[in-house]
Amino acid sequence: MERRKLLALSTAALALVPFHGLHAQDSNKPFTTEQLDQMLAPIALYPDALLSQVLMAATYPLEVVEAARWSQANPNLKGDAAVAAVKDKSWDVSVKSLVAFPQTLQMMSNQLDWTQKLGDAMIGQQKDVATAVQRLRAKAEAAGNLKSTSQQKVTTQSSGGANAIVIEPANPEVLYVPYYNPAWAYGAWPYPAYPPPYYPPPPNYGAALMSGMMFGLGVAAGAAMFGGWHWGYGGGGWGNSYTTVNVNRATSITNNFNADRYRNGQWNHDPSHRDGVPYRTPAERQEFGQHRPDSAAQREQFRGQLDGRGAAGAQNRGAEARPAENRPAENRSFENRTAGDRGAFGDINRGGSGASRDFDRGSQSWGNRSWGGGGDRGGGGERFGGGRR
């Protein structure tokens, strides 16, 4: 029941409201260099395996929300043990793998507008994403802020006459999530109109960083790492790069892995895990067989669901129909979030009443919100993700 309600609320919100960055974005145009660097800055310095799995999972934002809620409800399960506990869940393998890293998963859930944009870029511009990651890593290295440590190993590999910066765990069985302020990590930021967001570490990790890099507790999650990158340089950029999947590892993580979708170990988006979240462009909606319903009709259906007056809701409730205000409180709230979190998903997580008020104000009230507001949060060899040397 909760998943159906979450899906109804989120699908309605996403269908009715365009996403906005710091500037309005035409969904028929690719993300620009500035926009890609802005959205990837918080995670570009993650180890390759974790970076790839975050980007895969970002294409399934509703499953990310469900997994984050599961992690909150099961705080004593960590690392590979947490991943084993969700083996039977219906989520994509990338989402399941992230329960090993609850802080990262919670960040994605809390910043759903940002997560949605990461997923959109991954689906439509994966090669540009790879180029942006290498561009950002080169900036961090040039600034002296990306180095090997006891937690991670930073190396370079040659491809097409260029050097790819690869980040791996120092110990393949233990992974540390780096926390850093992008305004520090990359040196002088070249796009003043597109400042990188900063998502500070959890409160129990200490104060928010102004400079320097810190690492969370080591996570024994070697078995959960199945992703990686094939870094291929050509045509003046990293256009021959793609995300890789270690099929054997992925199969051990989940009971519903379809290896046929990953030919030659290369990742492909699986629309069966999209749960109705609209794709960004008409071409993608056509490619993945998604029909975008009439927004006015869906708005009325959405309001009917919220008010307890929708025909479907009445049929499901039957003689026990109750007004929305009498429903249990836990069914109206999907996420406890701060008042400042006002992204397009914000009202989904704040509950039905908040969403209803925003829809009554009209779409303009959404257009003034920034996915980049608030805080912010970054390689893989063959042993991790099947990435080719």
Which bin fits the share of residues in helices? 40-55%
Largest sheet: 2 strands, antiparallel
Could you tell me the mean pLDDT? 76
Rg from alpha-carbon coordinates? 21 Å
Oligomer: single chain
Which ranges are low-confidence, i.e. pLDDT below 50, for 5 or more consecutive residues? Answer: 11-24, 308-389
- Biggest sheet strand order reads 1-2
Number of strands: 8
The outline comes out as globular
Distance between the termini: 47 Å
The number of distinct helices, counting runs of at least 4 residues, comes to 18
Hey, roughly how much beta strand do the residues contain? 5-15%
Order of helices and strands: HHHHHHHHHEEEEHEEEEHHHHHHHH
Structural class: mainly alpha
Can you describe this structure?
The model is unreliable at 11-24 and 308-389 (pLDDT under 50). The radius of gyration is 21 Å and the shape is globular. The strands form 4 sheets. The chain has a two-stranded antiparallel sheet. A two-stranded antiparallel sheet has the order 3-6. Strands 4-5 form a two-stranded antiparallel ribbon. The chain contains 18 helices and 8 strands. Helix 2 packs across helix 9. The chain has 389 residues and is mainly alpha-helical. A hairpin with a 2-residue loop joins strand 1 and strand 2.
